[in-house]
Amino acid sequence: MFELIPANSFRNLGSLRREMDGLWDTLMGPGSLPFSGVKESFSPLVNLADKGDCLEVTAELPGLKPEELDISLNGDVLTIKGEKKEELEEDHKGYHLIERRYGEFSRSFRLPDEVDRESLKATHKNGIVKIVLPKKAKESSTAIEIEVE
């Protein structure tokens, strides 16, 4: 015969699962899959600043060369894409620890202002990519005189 299990017992299991997921995220980083063997991608850290006359985007991309990056502006969406490739190592010491993340990444940002597409500039120095997006000059308003008939 079946035993009746109180409904709140299942709620406790859900709570335990959330707590364990939170612990795993704390130990291994958000979104990591425990012992899955799945290669994780990474997401570079980005700053977006409004400098008044331009928008400035800086992204941390250490170890990547400029030719390994694809930066595009489609409409008002700026996209930074690339792939950080894993360096192959042989280890004969009986243990190995890998903390660096590898894989494809893509970050997209909807820009708050129109930018001057003719003056876009991107530079790469010491693992930091800096993208300068000059703002388009806003048209000043024109008063329209009302004629009396």
From TrEMBL:
Membrane-spanning residues: none
Domain SHSP: 36-149
SUPFAM superfamilies: HSP20-like chaperones (SSF49764)
PROSITE patterns hit by this protein: SHSP
Family per record: Belongs to the small heat shock protein (HSP20) family.
UniProt name for this protein: Molecular chaperone
Organism: Dethiosulfatarculus sandiegensis
